[in-house]
Specification:
By secondary structure, this protein is mainly alpha-helical. It has one domain. It is 75% helix and 0% strand.
Length: 145
């Protein structure tokens, strides 16, 4: 039963880490990989939670942009969002592979939502980026720690 709670905690922690909540999802992932000695299930659970958290940010940004356009109020844009917008404009959808990067990734996800990027494309790139990141962390944990 405690294993179920551990995976639940990984999912929840990963979900929150992909929203505006400043958390790191690596500790529960590393804990499960080290204690269970497996990679696939922790990577899948962590990736699922992190992608769903990013989807939440995507949809909030998409709705907020629609509301701002209707009210015609210009949104306040931070330097991080400006940098993310330049990256998005320069490299296109594959830049979402960096959605896991702290702060920058949140801005990229929000820009994808604000620009109404097709949700299927968003999910593909974000899932690939976040999944590869978790896989790299899990393999490093298993092989080096």
């Amino acid at each position: 039963m405690s294993l179920v709670y551990s995976y639940g905690a990984l999912f929840f922690w990963s979900f929150l880490a992909a929203t505006a909540v400043p958390l790191s999802s690596e500790p529960p992932l590393i804990f499960l990989v080290r204690t269970e000695g497996v990679v696939v299930l922790p990577v899948l659970v962590g990736t699922a939670g992190n992608v769903l958290g990013a989807c939440t940010t995507y949809w909030i940004a998409r709705r907020a942009t629609t509301a701002l356009v209707e009210s015609r109020e210009p949104p306040k844009v931070s330097k991080g969002h400006k940098r993310a917008a330049r990256l998005f404009n320069r490299y296109g959808q594959p830049v979402l592979l960096l959605s896991w990067v702290p702060i920058l990734g949140d801005a990229l996800v929000a820009i994808a939502g604000a620009t109404k990027l097709r949700f299927a494309h968003f999910c593909f790139w974000v899932s690939l980026g976040k999944g590869l990141r978790y896989l790299a962390i899990a393999l490093a944990t298993l092989n080096f720690f």
